[in-house]
Specification:
The structure is a homodimer.
Chain A lengths: L5 H19 L3 H17 L1 H12 L3 H24 L5 E4 L13 E7 L3 E4 L13 H9 L3 E4 L5 H17 L7 E4 L2 H8 L6 E5 L2 H13 L6 E4 L6 E3 L1 H20 L11 E5 L5 H8 L4 E2 L3 H15 L5 E4 L2 E4 L5 E4 L1 E6 H6 L1 H4 L7 E7 L5 H8 L3 E7 L7 H13 E6 L38 E7 L20 E4 L9 H6 L2
Parallel strand pairs in A: 1-19, 3-4, 3-6, 4-5, 6-7, 8-9, 8-16, 9-15, 14-15, 16-17
Antiparallel strand pairs in A: 1-2, 2-18, 10-13, 11-14, 12-13
Chain lengths: ~500, ~500
């Protein structure tokens, strides 16, 4: 796939801008059926797409079939979000002659699409965070045309996916330019600076994400940039949990670290175990799995460097050394590496050890009985996508409560038991978190709430019914949820608090 | 009021960080009654506060009494928002063994406060956008401690307000550090870079706002910056509206331009009238009002420069020259200045004329019959807080529809008749808009939706009931709205769209 030329870039940006009002103006049924059409097109081409993805990414067939299914399910979920309409957050304040600050006009507020969205595809989810992935589905559902910057790790798959989805969208009546593909790193940067692009999403490294976030913020008219960057996803195991189910924890940990060769943003990078946990041999045995190809040579080279650094750090003891070799094509092949370090040495070597190791490597951190885990975590970690606690059934204590509270303050999702990899696509999912997990922790990039990143509110004041957008009209032809504030309410604001405070 | 010292700044930042978990953990009734207590304290000191504000700002007693009432009402509104609880956006996905992508865990999501918020107070609303103003009320309601950078235009009022509100908050049990004041421009910049500050809000000029937004974006860990900057609030009058109610339009326009000496972010800066409107003399007569003091010497100097530039621009014809003089204290005193220009000359002189003139000045733009107002607006304006259309009763046409659509795309609020000044504090208000109206158009700085700027979502996965935050528990002790997604639903996602697309 050749790089997008400057001429093409200009045409693509204008095409997205031209599509924006038409796609924004599509009725819920049109938009939803276009999303379902895209989902069906992906499923219809499953064997071809998965075969291409296997060649380009080295991921397994089972993983890719599951990911493709997830990608189609995401599109179908967003079709339902569009039809249901609560994402519009319609609020209607009736005109109020008794309003406490003078006559209140009739005010009606809802959310409109922001305009063309630029989505930087990820390497490690060639379907679910790529051309037709979650960010694209959310932006399309919001009513925004999408320009996807293809990831260089899977160019043929990107082109094939774009062809299929574009065809399906057009067949469903979506305007030309609703979904377009660009390629090339410099091209992506240039498009991010284009005045017609109104928001951007990204999944990738802290370095690239920070660079792009800074460009978005420095534009003459800045735009929101939703980047999902780096996360090490600490997991804390209590002594009681270890006593209760050590083998199960060892199983889950190694599965979570080695699946997809650890190339997941939610891979547990640090497992905190009580010193003397006795799991060393069991973990080593479980880590003796077959080789898995890494996504592309650049990822493999980065993994080699991080792994070398970690293994050469004073205080780090290998549990399972694993392997890493490069084939004639420069592709890396790895088996899981597990190492251990004391909490004290981790603190001393934090500059070498804390950065995310993207690949099948994780570090077991051994802590002492009674050690203050909140104080430890506070010295180690900034924001993460996830934080996990393994406690025993019914376990409850002040330190455990403090740790859970700390994790909620520093993560997007807090897990109790289980493992952070495998992110459910549902209304209550939060996939995001404080910096550097994301550049903007008000949004999520998985689940139905992801749509709000690509919307902004607008109010209509004293508009005649005939000039109102349909979701704001009293006859509500789309049947969207409308939250009404009736007249006369303002005189009672705060009175409930006054009484109850008495 | 002396400038905050580096020692004080460090203490204040730490005090806010220490208060954060306690204030975030306050129960709805505690937090609501603290907000009502603050409102009552302001009302109780009304005459003292208004007298100080009159001296420091030159605004009229009537205006300041109204603004103080509004400020108290805002606090009471947010008390109700806290008690009602829908701002938490609680979503509960029940565990689902039939989930289409494999077993779904129990997932529960709500919004938590982001932590200490830095609020840069505005000069032109010494109560409503200052120490205890809308941004402060919204952040406190969200559960965030607030540090207010006082505006240098009303230092004594800022100190008095902070004393009163801090006392009321503490009397209601809020932790020390829930509201604190800092002074000094460099001090504000330094606090914006402090790692303990997690979000910031600002109301002021494009220049200062851009500077601060860039600092917030460039931090090692960037934070959201909600700046409300510049807006010229165009008003378009159709020929039919003019025929129907020219006198009423002239009345409203001059009132909206001259109120508070035009020192309002929603002042209509441009009134588009059909050429030959015949309102010149009527507007001049209405503009002959008494002198009004401008807020402080810096504002007056800026107004003088903008007014001089506008009046010296080729094609600009004065309708009412108005006056501007400086007294011995350097305070500026002004009467309204109205000028007119043809649409063609405005386009030619856009670099001189389009920038906001902060003060009692507005420009009447004369357009030709049949002129494409959307094409004109598109060449003139970026984002605005408001856009207004005056049409005749029942008027409807394709050009009118296109203009309304354009305004919605480029504004936070679209008005039909009426005038943009006077912003209702209600659930459906949107006070924000695309750049340069704000730095971030996903939020509003007026109305109950303003609270969401200071919250971020977090999900709990498979948490035991006893370890969940109260709003996420099945027994729901606070009685907050909980949106539940039951099991088995995912198999039907998209099927409604598929059927209806047939």
């Amino acid at each position: 796939m050749s790089e997008t030329t400057p001429d093409q870039l200009e045409r693509i940006a204008q095409c997205a801008a031209d599509a924006a009002p038409r796609w924004a103006g599509s009725e819920p049924r049109e938009r939803a059926s276009a999303l379902v059409g895209a989902a069906d097109a992906l499923i219809g081409a499953r064997s071809e797409l998965v075969a291409t993805a296997m060649l380009e990414t080295g991921l397994t067939e089972a993983r890719l079939v599951g990911e493709l299914t997830r990608t189609a399910v995401q599109l179908r979920l967003f079709a339902d979000v569009v039809l249901q309409g609560s994402y519009l957050d319609v609020r209607i304040d009736e005109a109020d002659s008794e309003f406490v600050l003078g006559v209140r006009p009739d005010l009606r507020r809802y959310r409109i699409p922001v305009g063309p969205v630029l989505n930087f595809a990820a390497s490690n989810f060639p379907f679910a965070f790529s051309v037709a992935g979650g960010d694209t589905a959310a932006a399309l559902a919001a009513g925004c045309p999408v320009i996807v910057k293809a990831h260089s790790g899977h160019p043929r798959l990107s082109a094939a996916t774009a062809r299929l989805v574009t065809g399906a969208l057009q067949a469903a009546g979506a305007p030309t330019g609703t979904l377009q593909l660009i390629t090339g790193r410099a091209v992506g940067v240039q498009m991010l600076g284009d005045r017609r692009v109104r928001a951007a999403s990204f999944t990738g490294s802290v370095r690239a994400g920070r660079l792009l976030a800074d460009i978005a913020a420095a534009r003459p008219a800045p735009i929101p940039f939703y980047g999902e960057l780096g996360s090490v996803n600490p997991v804390f195991v209590t002594a009681a949990a270890l006593a209760e189910r050590a083998e199960q924890i060892a199983d889950g940990f190694v599965m979570s670290v080695s699946g997809s060769a650890g190339q997941l943003c939610t891979k547990p990078g640090f497992l905190f175990l009580p010193a003397g946990h006795g799991l060393r041999d069991g973990l080593a045995a479980r880590a003796a799995t077959g080789e898995h190809r890494l996504l592309y040579p650049g990822i493999a080279a980065g993994y080699r460097d991080r792994r070398d650094t970690i293994l050469a750090t004073p205080g780090v003891v290998p549990i399972a050394l694993g392997s890493l070799r490069f084939d004639e094509q420069g592709q890396g092949w790895a088996t899981p590496t597990l190492a251990s370090v004391s909490a004290r040495d981790l603190l001393a070597q934090r500059d070498r050890l804390l950065q995310e190791a993207f690949g099948p490597l994780s570090i077991v951190v051994e802590f002492e009985p009674g050690q203050d885990l909140v104080a430890l975590a506070d010295q180690l970690f900034q924001g993460n996508l996830t934080g996990t606690v393994h406690a025993a059934a019914g376990e409850d204590s002040a330190p455990l409560g403090a740790l859970i509270h700390w994790l909620a303050q520093h993560s997007g999702r807090v897990l109790f038991g289980g493992w952070p990899t495998g992110v459910a696509v549902t209304p209550a999912m939060q996939h995001g978190g404080p910096w550097p997990a994301t550049t903007n922790d008000s949004g999520t990039s998985v689940g139905s709430a992801a749509i709000t990143r690509f919307l902004r509110p607008v109010s209509y004041q004293n508009a005649p019914q005939g000039l109102l957008p349909l979701p704001l009209r009293d006859d509500n032809p789309w049947g969207v949820p409308q939250h009404r504030a009736g007249s006369g309410q303002s005189r009672h604001w705060g009175s409930q608090a006054s009484v109850s405070a008495g």
